[in-house]
Amino acid sequence: MNELISFIIISIGILADIIGCIGLVRFPDVYTRLQASTKCVTLGTCGIFFGVFFYYGFTSIGIKALLVMIFIFLTSPVSSHALARAAYKSNIKLSEKSICDEYKKEKK
Q: For residue range 48-72, what is the model confidence (pLDDT) as tens digits?
């Protein structure tokens, strides 16, 4: 039973990674691509590691998967924010389809 549940969780994680990769290819600018990649890593990869943890339990492999999952949850949003801020400060333009620029309003 644990094998089936862990297989389902890992499959959901792989599906989220695939959808995130499609978003990386299809989205128009660096900011929306960063959003897709962050969601992909956080949901998809952590889903895969949670499936591994669920399968192995509290063994050495399971604990390592849990620690990697916690590390990804802490570092992925922070690094994405830093990259987006650096891109904005480097004057990389938003897509023409973008509705508003909240950061520009805040700077004034």
A: 999 999 999 999 999 999 999 999 9
- Residues 65 and 51: their CA atoms lie apart, in Å, by 9
Residue ranges in the chain assigned as alpha helix (H)? 2-26, 30-39, 46-56, 60-89, 102-107
Q: How many domains does the chain have?
A: 1
- Global pTM value: 0.80
CATH of the domain at 68: 1.10.287
**Residue 100 belongs to some domain of the structure:** no
Nearest to 29 by CA among 102, 104, 83: 83
Could you tell me the residue range of the domain that residue 39 belongs to? Answer: 2-93
- Would you say 103 and 89 are in contact if contact means Cβ atoms under 8 Å apart? no
